[in-house]
Amino acid sequence: MPYTVEYFNRRVLDEIESWPVGILADYARLIELLMEFGPDLRMPHSRALGGGLLELRPRGREGIGRAMYCFVRGQQVVVLHAFVKKTQTTSKRDLGIARRRMKEVQDD
Question: Domains (ranges, CATH) in the chain?
């Protein structure tokens, strides 16, 4: 049974849709893989960040994107936060946003 993908809110989807075309194309490919393989999707496409938080790792000529997500209620994936990376490391602020949102969707 395939996994379904939802977005935490409209702003998360808007952020992703505003990405440069190369990163966006790779994101679309990775979302399809995520829907097919779910938690079995691994590096270099997806990486666990701990505590049930994971990230999709799209890249294009224009740079690198990150979409943080979690699994809720079986086959459902929720994309919590997304951004285009500007530094080598993911900021504590971005991780904090994703972790707060994950707690919110898992408490429903």
Answer: 4-107 (3.30.2310.20)
